[in-house]
Amino acid sequence: MAIEIPENVVVSRLDSLASWCRKNSLWPMPFATACCGIELMATGASKHDLARFGAEVMRFSPRQCDLMIVAGRVVMKMLPVLQRIWQQMHEPKWCISMGACASTGGVFDTYSVVQGIDRFIPVDMYVPGCPPRPEQLIQAIIDLQDKIQAEGTIGGREFAMRSRQQPKRALVELNVLSLPRGVSNLPQGVRVE
Amino acid sequence: MIKPETITALGERFPAVRFSEFRDQQRAAVPAAELAEVFGFVKETQGFDLLVDVTCVDYLNYRNAEDRFGLVYLLANTTTNERLTLRVYVNEPNLSVPSATTYWKGANWLEREVYDMFGIEFAGHPDLRRILLPDEFTAHPLRKDYPLQGRGERHNFPVLTREEG
User: Fold this and answer.
1) pTM here?
2) Which terminus of chain B, N or C, has fewer Cβ atoms within 10 Å?
């Protein structure tokens, strides 16, 4: 039985509609700690104009953001701060690891620099480069929008998928997760207040 | 540059001080026992009113080195534009020198950094805590016997998954 609907009514799935709204209004949380942050600022500025993709509303409170862009190296004193900010962001939320340092530690293979933030918080998109061009970051945001549209659900069921809970394949293959922890008498998870 | 009179005055007052010169820069190696007196002399009598920097060198495995740590005090006289470098050598187990904060307030954070990175104790310092590393850090990472990639401190954090938020 055909139901006649007016011309100005669009029919869609609720999941698809929610994802469409979310992907076009990403509010980034700029976690900029190094030179990648300069490129992040250039991305938001007039020449590259992140507003064309609906992601220009940089907010410096994690409670107003749903996209964390980690731009720059994260040292071990900063990591508890990073995790705390990530936990304060509301669901659904995504994370872009921008640049070589945030993704792998980059050239800073030293005692204080975390060798990739994906060891300790979930990451959805990686941007290579040292630092990446603004076009690369824009491409990452476009790809993230496609990802949100493709698999997003209104209830956030995609975040509970088994593939999102497992450690990254590279970390397993490189045997990173079995590296010695806590040799320095530090109990795991000691935070600096 | 430094005036010859200043060198002469310092040498006469403290005969144990050894002088050397490198590219027109005068260095004075001071015995650790006389350091506090030398501070007072160069500050009050010779007018070195600015402490530019306090830093340290670890001479472990350094060729021809006799001492483990060499402290460096860079001083300046803002009236006469003289500059002087004081060197103090310390060895384990007694890694303690008198604090320069008595004479230069600016030594506070500089000495905290040396304490943080090398573990040198500054006797009389008003607030000797770590300044850069987290308080619960147990090592002194700029010592040469500390591995470059650390002892696992950078891996020592809880892993947040999507389920945990």
Assistant:
1) 0.82
2) N
